[in-house]
Amino acid sequence: PEDEIGLIPCADGGTSLDDWVVGGALFENAISQAKLAQRTSQLSGILWHQGENDCSPEKAEIYSEKFAVIIKTLRQELNVPEIPLMIGGLGDFLPNGIFGKYFASYALINHELEDFAKTHANSYFVTAKGLTANADNIHFNALSQRILGVRYYSAFRDLKHLLEPHNDEENRLTTIYNRPYTQTEKIKLLEHEFAVGNIESKDFLSELAILSGK
Q: 95 is in which domain, residue-wise?
């Protein structure tokens, strides 16, 4: 309960697997950011959610081979050979939008992602079944992002594939929403209220002092 959990954001939207080639800018940035975090923290997992820009039969056929090189090198560079890799599936809504023709083969990528997880050690697939999108039918909406987060955590905690949605995902979200805020969260909310002009500076400083225990 006392552990502090941090995320190392290295994602870059709209990228293909080739953009993450070993030695490329995105790969090297991820290595750099992770090594910086290792100075004061322990790496506990890798989260991979990518594939929309590889939705073609030709790219799907060689996806797993390329992906294996990226993950193997990433683990070697960071000296974490057995770190869990959580692999998220693509949303079933992708073919339904105005750009749907570009995602007609999304199921092939999902198959490759799931198969990779099942055939490589310390790798776990997390389904996106039942999740919904924003109006663009490309990006997960806010609710689905939260549900996907619950699924990722469940797979990470149990070190098991999550191939079907939980039956009680709404209840799990309610539990998360109703939990007490941490001190850091309270401070961030207070800073937001001050930034948008909802509280005056003297009240902000007073409440900040209370939250900070000063």
A: 17-176
Q: Tokens standing for 212?
A: 């900070």
Closest to 30 in 3D by CA, of 5, 9, 7: 9
Shared domain for 122 and 89, answered yes or no, is yes
The pTM for the full model equals: 0.86
The answer to the question of residue 5 being in a domain is no
Q: Which residue has the tokens 């790798």?
A: 123
Count CA within 13 A, CB hemisphere, residue 52: 18
pLDDT in tens, 99-144: 899 999 999 999 999 999 999 999 999 999 999 999 999 999 999 9
Summarize the confidence of residues 80-86 as an average pLDDT.
98
| Measured distance CA(56)–CA(58) in Å, rounded | 5
Task: Give the DSSP letter of residue 144.
Answer: H
Q: Are 87 and 123 in contact (CB under 8 A)?
A: yes
